[in-house]
Prior knowledge:
Layout: H1 2-66, H2 71-86, H3 90-113, H4 115-118, H5 121-156, H6 160-167, H7 187-190
Amino acid sequence: MKNKKLIIIIAAILAVVVIIGGSAISSYNGLVTNQESVETAKANIDTMLQRRADLIPNVVDTVKAFAKHETEVFDKVLEARQNLLNANTIEEQSAANEELTTALQGINVIVENYPELKSDATYIGLMDELEGSENRIAVARDRYNEAVKEYNLKVKRFPGSIFAGIFGFEEAEYFEADAGTSEVPDVGAALGD
């Protein structure tokens, strides 16, 4: 009789240990999987930002050929490009991307002053590539933020929150929109009206 009770108690303890251990392993593996998805999505953003940065010198060189005296604008673009390449964190990338976008607007002003540049095949091709890069960056950011959302939900929800704390998993940061993107652009000014 005592042996039966002891066996039942030991079996119950082992069952609880197995359930808790299985839950811990499952939660840990889920967190690792989601964390890896976040890292992969971040790497995809880095790849798209690198593609954009690689196109910038070609755009600058093409525009330089038409507007040799506009060196200040070119220097700002190249400096902003370098800042983007040197950015390590999501915040640094976002700030550097905003800086580069602003610097590229200076090139657009130059292009407006040189109508023959707007019809140059090399320039048109490069701008199409740059526009494609911008679209790819937007998609990569969306995918990154979706991966961050899934990961953060696992970190915050029960029982994942317990295991996240035990295993040292922390929330990931979203890729934020550049400052000023909520403002309505002046299309007339952009078109030179």
